[in-house]
Amino acid sequence: MAGEEEREKLVREAVSALQYLKALGCDYIPDGPGIRALFGEGAQMVEARERMKEVVAEEKVVVETVGEPTAATATSLQSLNLEGERPSVTLEEIRERLGDCARCKLSSGRQNIVFGDGNPNAVLMFVGEGPGKDEDIQGIPFVGRAGQLLTKIIEAIDMKREDVYIANIVKCRPPENRVPEPDEVKACIPFLMDQIEAIRPQIIVTLGGVATNNLLGTKGSLGSARGRFHTLDHFGSLVMPTYHPAYLLRDPAKKRETWEDMKKVRDMYNTLMKGE
Ligand code: SF4
């Protein structure tokens, strides 16, 4: 019966892989450079890919809409990092290396470095723009009114704040809460990238256009980026851009769209957890 068990396992893996690809926006049974990048080109991987296709055909697993893969999907697939190696750095090491940082001019006005907060093994991570007044005083991200709203958003998808990890693009408060300048982002963002490397979150929610553009290296509007998953190069984390809670406090009508984004995050989280 070993063959039967193996077949069932393969079917489960195939279905799970298809659900994952579909959630990424891939609406066809894939082959070509993107899928080869996903599965690799070793002999075993080629065989596994062929067998998965056979099982999918046999089980009549249908991926709903038929269409051409988008360039974004192909890029996503090629950039997925599914190697599964252990993180090369820990949060403690990164904090130690950051030290009493004066790598940019934001150091002169801060009270505290706001390094990040939460579960070091989080599957879900939130990235904001930078600390505000309350965060600067307490040294913890998202503790003011916007932070309280973020906590409610997290709880609305059936998670607790302590389940996730929260950080910002810059770790020191910009004066008058202005947008961080390019030289400040350039100095600080490597530490955020190291935190992502240490945590290896499968999903990252970027809060607002500044966080989204700086993390994804894009220049577009938040409106054009939100509502769908992107992939973070190298790490392979799925990135869902949505509105910053501070913006939601100013424009509560945007809460509905934020909720739509967060439902996608919750569904993806549940899909990924089922596949583990
Ligand atoms: S914002 Fe980042 S790079 Fe600039 S001083 Fe603070 S910790 Fe250092």
Automatic annotation (TrEMBL):
Key word Transcription present: no
Reactions catalysed, as given in the entry: Hydrolyzes single-stranded DNA or mismatched double-stranded DNA and polynucleotides, releasing free uracil
GO aspect biological process, one term: DNA repair
Protein keywords: 4Fe-4S, DNA damage, DNA repair, Hydrolase, Iron, Iron-sulfur, Metal-binding
Biological source species: Candidatus Zymogenus saltonus
Family the entry assigns: Belongs to the uracil-DNA glycosylase (UDG) superfamily. Type 4 (UDGa) family.
Entries under PANTHER family matching the protein: TYPE-4 URACIL-DNA GLYCOSYLASE, TYPE-5 URACIL-DNA GLYCOSYLASE
Protein name: Type-4 uracil-DNA glycosylase
Ranges in a coiled coil: none
Uracil-DNA glycosylase-like domain span: 115-263
